[in-house]
Amino acid sequence: MTAATRTVQVGGAAPYPVHVGAGAAGLLARHGREGRRVLLVVQPGREAVADEAERTLRDTGADPVRVVVPDAEDAKTAEVLTGLWNRLGREGFTRDDLVVGVGGGATTDLAGFAAATWLRGVEVVHLPTSLLGVVDAAVGGKTGINTAEGKNLVGAFHPPAAVLCDPSWFSGMPRADYVSGLAEVIKCGFVADPVILDLVEADPAAAVDPVAHPDLAVELVVRAVGVKAEVVAADLRESSLREILNYGHTFAHAVEQVEGYTWRHGDAVAVGMVYVAELASGRGLIDEDLLARHRRVLSAVGLPTAYPGGRWPELRVAMGRDKKTRGSTLRFVVLEGLARPGRLEGPAEEELRAAYDALR
């Protein structure tokens, strides 16, 4: 491990480390051994990272096999998953073998589900190459694919053996995608670790440039992963506590659905956080300063804080499908102060509409 690599330990029944920093890929050697077969599930455009992983594994005597899957959400289909199962079968993978996901969140979701379902569970290691991938998808043990009826409706909880992330891998990301990922980082600042907000506000330009400011990138990732690690260690299967990680997501998921999934996830989450802050402000749960800070921090890094009008009926229906809804009662994660998350159940229709109107 290099001096620049930092580790967050995710606890719970199946604990695992998240290593962040220069040289993280070299730690994949811990998971290779003579004769061990390894399926590398690779996102297009991440071949350089896959090459590094493959060299590391071969040096241990392992036998890596690479499969490049479709890009982004196109990878998360039953057809692509079936192709991975077929390859695992042809290569004779056993329960002692390994799956490695190399790419963004969609790729690690797919790789994790393939690992969870092959022989009822084989080891998986994730190498997330996007900011959203490391702070959201790769940590927490949730895996899955999409169906025609919606995103992530078929999946399993299958914690990885390790997560390895070198922020230099972010260098190939479009700036807009990196900024989108910052929404999930900033979310962690509002619900649990306000130092994240302080760091972003102190130098927004540095926060959006991980290549020029790798130390800040590592600090933000480590803090965000630390928040998620603490929550999922206590609540792997989303019974209650883990809901705080969905701050802003009820409205965000509605936006994604209404917009036909053309919005970046982080952009939708940013608007969703402002929506729920407006909802909490209307109830008197947070003051005007905290409400204003949502818009100030998000806009400082280039995230949206407004949503055009005219879509309320569709959004309202979509929010009713949220997984936190119980029967016909909407439930929101809200703040009752900075880093003090709570829940708001069954707000009146006029409250919901007023918060929406404040976004226009």
**Helix segment tally:** 13
Instruction: Supply the helix-strand structural class.
Output: alpha/beta
Cα(first) to Cα(last) distance is 49 Å
Number of domains: 2
Mean pLDDT: 92
Principal-axes geometry comes out as globular
The CATH class name of the largest domain reads: Alpha Beta
Strand order of the largest sheet: 1-2-9-6-5-3-4
Order of helices and strands: EEEHEHEHEHEEEHHHHHHHHEEH
Helix content: 40-55%
Question: How much of the residues is beta strand, in percent?
Answer: 15-25%
Task: Find the CATH topology of the largest domain.
Answer: Rossmann fold
Known CATH architecture of the largest domain: 3-Layer(aba) Sandwich
Uncertain residue ranges: none
Rg over CA atoms, rounded to whole Å, is: 20 Å
For the sheet with most strands, the description reads: 7 strands, mixed
Please, could you describe this protein's structure?
The protein is α/β, with parallel strands linked by helices and 360 residues long. It folds into two domains: 167 residues, Rossmann fold (3-Layer(aba) Sandwich), CATH 3.40.50.1970; 115 residues, Dehydroquinate synthase-like, alpha domain (Up-down Bundle), CATH 1.20.1090. It has 13 helices and eleven strands. The chain has a seven-stranded mixed sheet, with helices on both faces. Strand 7 and strand 8 form a beta hairpin. Helix 4 runs parallel beside helix 8. The longest helix is centred in the middle third of the chain and has 21 residues. It is globular, with a radius of gyration of 20 Å. The mean pLDDT is 92.
